[in-house]
Amino acid sequence: MATILNASLNVAKIDKTKLIAGKTGQFLNVTITINDEVDKFGNNASIFESQTKEEREAKTPKNYLGNGKVIWTSEKKNNDLPF
């Protein structure tokens, strides 16, 4: 299944220690969750900094960076979603 998301990130909230230096620039690993329900703004995706196994096991709070919405998918599973 193919999916397209539109999203916004609050770059001021990025933990600079999580930036990874690469050959072509700096990178940040993120995790994107897609929810079954939309919020009052039509968003159904949340974006967080990716966590290490140790952070997950320690139940370290996720650093929320922004949200988004699915704007297109090749498979429509729920008629209540706005795409």
Textual characterization of the structure:
It is a single chain. This protein is mostly beta strands and 83 residues long. Helices cover 6% and strands 40% of the residues. It has one helix at 53-57; strands at residues 3-9, 20-22, 25-27, 30-34, 45-49, 64-73. The strands form two sheets. A four-stranded antiparallel sheet has the order 1-6-5-4, with no helix packed on it. A two-stranded antiparallel ribbon has the order 2-3. The protein starts with a strand and ends in a 10-residue tail after the last strand. The mean pLDDT is 91.
Q: What topology does this entry show?
A:
Layout: E1 3-9, E2 20-22, E3 25-27, E4 30-34, E5 45-49, H1 53-57, E6 64-73
Antiparallel strand pairs: 1-6, 2-3, 4-5, 5-6
Number of helices: 1
- Give the DSSP E fraction (strand runs of 2 or more residues): 35-45%
Which stretches are low in confidence, meaning pLDDT under 50 for 5 or more residues running? none
Number of strands: 6
Can you list the strand order of the major beta sheet? Answer: 1-6-5-4
**Shape by Cα distribution:** globular
Please write the string of helix (H) and strand (E) elements: EEEEEHE
Mean pLDDT figure: 91
Give Rg in angstroms. Answer: 15 Å
The biggest beta sheet reads: 4 strands, antiparallel
Structural class category: mainly beta
Distance N to C terminus: 14 Å
State the share of residues found in helices, binned by percent: under 10%
